[in-house]
Write a structure and sequence with these properties.
This protein is α+β, with helices and mostly antiparallel strands. The chain folds into four domains: 101 residues, Phosphorylase Kinase, domain 1, CATH 3.30.200.20; 196 residues, Orthogonal Bundle (Transferase(Phosphotransferase), domain 1); 87 residues, Phosphorylase Kinase, domain 1, CATH 3.30.200.20; 193 residues, Transferase(Phosphotransferase) domain 1 (Transferase(Phosphotransferase), domain 1, Orthogonal Bundle). Helix content is 37%, strand content 19%. It has a five-stranded antiparallel beta sheet. The relative contact order is 0.06.
């Protein structure tokens, strides 16, 4: 046990902090009663900020649970996926065994199965596709020599965050398996929630990845029918669903309101066929996770993608000049309003030209975005390919594009800018496993109502094999020259770190509160060259927005400017985006600490002599 704990020193959290965060395990903080014990809500301080936690306190009432406890920690410590519940840490102290996760604001999927208002068909499809991506990730080995069999997939182990995005949890029963033996059966007992356990386990004496597929098939039918897998005094949903699918009477066991949304649609037929195939009696005839993902995306695509040209024409007022946002190389961008999921939504329509390259860019962006799932990457709300028109629809964000907000030091504060840069960096780190964006700029960053960034504009992007990330890759589509590394001006090849230079330019835009190309006074100047010169001369203050500079912690500024400068270094010396993420996270933590100290100091002075506060604040 001690040897195990020494493997994860960064994840060990003192019992004292957990007791303080949960108010000494107050029963008022209990949010769930599970097989392993009670789950408590609480708060912890991490990187200078308070985070909401769910602390699962192991109960030995049902027997020895050490194996499952350490198995879950071992599994989650290596998993990094947008749709897998993230592990904060664990405690093994004074006889207590506690696992800590980020607390998901909306609870688990099982709570919403019959709620067709909160979970429309559109949202259900998106949740299922994202969970399938998580299963695909653990089944395919997530970059390691082994893969995982989850063994506990059900609607209670699928958690939902504040935006109703799913997180797969419940890895306490998971088993590791060599990536080269992922079709083989691991001998073990049948474990899991009633109604989700693969009947073939008993016959074969063990599990393999197809056992997870069966359990997920049950979840798909729960989502489709709006009912739980197991209800007292009723047959199991799996049995009912197979019977009614085979007799083409699924609507008889579906929620009436949900059936009205989707009856006889291509999306419904594709989804139901996929769910049924997951429950095949013979595990070898079930689809694998890759195939499930493809089919669910197809079902999602029927709802999500197809938008008629006449709908877009109406939404943009017939592509009027008044609705034109930008006219650029990648097309014309129009704002508009469109009815989406019974709600009038602000959208941006990118109208693509008809040259060979522009048509290729249209399909390149759609195909790339189909394969991506990250909170800081914009998703396509729809597309159109009719009558010679090719249009991509995005949801229009409240705060527009980052480049529109660069000079605003009041709303776009320094700490908010740090969070935006960190979010974009995390998305790029995710992309660089097998995608190069090739067109990062402040225009290509959208900002939602919470100032959360979303990268869009993948028309120049390129995919590559993960094993090729250090190779030179042939490429003939590059971004605008203001963000393009000088060495690439006449180049036909790139490496995955190509985006790093462009991101460095964006960092200096954010820092200085000005765009990459500065015009005025009869002289045009390149911000990257100006920033590099001032950094080297140690006088960056001369070009930083004055309103921003007053907000900055000195150490935060030093860390930020240093990593921005390194991003503009020669291509072979660029940091990786993982390295950039770590530095920006550090800069944010320093600024957070600085602002908390300043707030406490101000509060203390206010309590002593309110008349002196203005002197402190406006000095």
């Amino acid at each position: 046990m001690e040897q195990f704990i020494r493997q994860f020193p960064r994840l060990k959290i003192p019992l004292e902090e957990i007791l303080e965060g949960t108010n000494n395990f107050d029963d008022k903080n209990v949010i769930e009663m599970g097989d392993f014990g009670k789950v408590y809500k609480g708060k912890l301080i991490r990187s200078g900020k308070s985070i909401k936690i769910a602390a699962r306190r192991l109960s030995r009432y049902h027997g020895q649970r050490d194996v499952e406890f350490f198995r879950e920690i071992s599994a989650l410590s290596t998993l990094e996926h947008e749709n897998i519940a993230s592990l904060i840490g664990f405690c093994d102290e004074n006889g207590e065994m506690i696992v800590l996760h980020h607390r998901n604001a909306k609870g688990s999927l099982v709570m919403y199965l019959s709620d067709i208002t909160t979970l429309s068909w559109f949202h259900r499809l998106k949740i299922c596709f994202n969970v399938a991506c998580a299963i695909q990730y653990i089944h395919n080995g997530f970059g390691e020599k082994y893969c995982l069999i989850h063994r506990n997939i059900n609607s209670s182990t699928i958690l939902l965050d504040k935006s109703m995005s799913p997180r797969l949890s419940g890895f306490e029963y998971s088993l590791k398996q060599s990536i080269n033996q992922n079709d083989e059966v691991i001998l073990c007992e049948a474990i899991g929630a009633r109604g989700y356990i693969d009947p073939a386990i008993e016959k074969r004496g063990g599990v393999n990845q197809k056992s997870d597929i069966y359990s997920f098939g049950i979840v798909l039918f729960e989502i489709l029918c709006g009912r739980k897998a197991f209800t007292d005094n009723e047959p199991l949903l799996g049995q009912l669903a197979k019977f009614h699918y085979e007799n083409e009477t699924l609507e008889e066991i579906m929620h009436p309101g949900l059936w009205e949304q989707i009856k006889e649609s291509k999306s419904f037929k594709c989804f139901a066929e996929t769910a049924y195939s997951c429950l095949h009696k013979d595990p070898t005839q079930r689809p694998d996770a890759n195939q499930v993902c493809d089919k669910l995306y197809e079902a999602y695509d029927y709802v999500h993608q197809m938008i008629r040209l006449q709908v877009i024409v109406s939404a943009t007022n017939n592509f009027s000049d008044e609705n034109l946002i930008q006219d650029g190389e990648s097309g014309r961008y129009y704002k508009g309003k469109m009815l989406r999921s019974a709600k009038l939504t602000d959208v941006v329509a990118r109208r693509v030209g008809n040259t060979y390259e522009q048509i290729a860019e249209f399909w390149r962006e759609i195909n790339t975005l189909h394969s991506l799932s990250h909170k800081n990457i914009a998703y396509v709300a729809g597309s159109c390919d009719e009558y010679g028109e090719r249009i991509i629809i995005y949801e229009r964000t409240v705060h527009g594009h980052l480049d529109q907000n660069l000079t605003d030091a009041i709303n776009l504060t320094w700490i908010r800018r740090l969070k935006i840069c960190l979010g974009v960096a995390q998305a790029l780190a995710y992309l660089h496993y097998d995608v190069i964006h090739c067109d990062i700029s402040s225009f290509k960053i959208l900002l939602d109502e919470d100032w959360e960034p979303r990268i869009f504009g993948f028309e120049h992007s390129m995919k590559f094999l993960g094993s090729w990330r250090h190779r030179l890759l042939s490429c003939n589509h590059f971004n605008t020259s203001n963000y393009r590394e000088p060495g690439y001006l006449d180049a036909t090849t790139v490496i995955p770190r190509y985006d790093v230079y462009s991101f460095g330019v964006m960092l200096f835009e954010v820092l200085c509160g000005r765009k990459a190309w500065i015009s005025g006074g009869g002289v045009d100047q390149s911000l990257p060259e100006m920033a590099k010169r001032h950094f080297a001369d140690k006088n960056l203050d001369e070009i930083i927005n004055k309103g921003l500079r007053k907000q900055m912690d000195l150490q935060s500024l030093e860390i930020f400017s240093d990593i921005a400068y390194r991003c503009l270094d020669e291509q072979l010396r660029h940091p990786t985006m993982d390295q950039v993420v770590k530095k920006l996270d550090d800069a944010l933590a320093r600024q957070w600490k600085h602002e908390n100290i300043r707030e406490r100091t101000t509060a203390e002075v206010t309590s002593i002599n309110p008349l002196k506060v203005n002197n402190l604040i406006y000095f």
